[in-house]
Please model this.
Amino acid sequence: MLDFNKGAGLVPAVIQDYQTLEVLMLGYMNEEAWEKTQKEQRVTFFSRTKNRLWTKGEESGNYLELVEASVDCDNDTLLIKVNPKGPTCHTGSRSCFKTDFNQNFIFQLEKIIDDRFINPNESSYVNKLRDKGINKIAQKVGEEAIETVIAALKESDMDFINESSDLIFHLLVLLREKNIPLVRIAENLAKRHHK
Model:
């Protein structure tokens, strides 16, 4: 149960992209904003400057769709995982926090590949590869794996980085073709680690 009394009726809400795990913003909620967020499945804050409830995206259309929320151990902070519908920051940036790049870009890439599956585009490499079928996608993963090994043994570090990137990209396409999200691989690796 959230304790709104500690912060004079407000609790901080850390907003995180549910897929990339990138921290997008920090806002504050009162009890009414929290209830509205749960009811409408869109994140609503209490704006301290406007002194009213404020649903993120109410003017821009860049809503934050609620995926899941958890309360910290002191019951006075929320971690809210969202599906962002457009940029989160008022500047047009994906996140309100300035970073050189999203360290979890691999999950963002998975999202891009998923979009290519859902919204096919003839000029997209993903769709051209997909049109050739799962055998070709699997073959491409094998080819990239061999090229990665060769680069590791005989070529420069940059060649190895490029070949590793190709391997991971094609593996993501194969995972999507098999309808297995990357998080399932992470969960499996975590289970193995704990054995």
User: Anything to note?
Assistant: Residues 11-84 form a domain with the Ubiquitin-like (UB roll) fold (CATH 3.10.20.810).
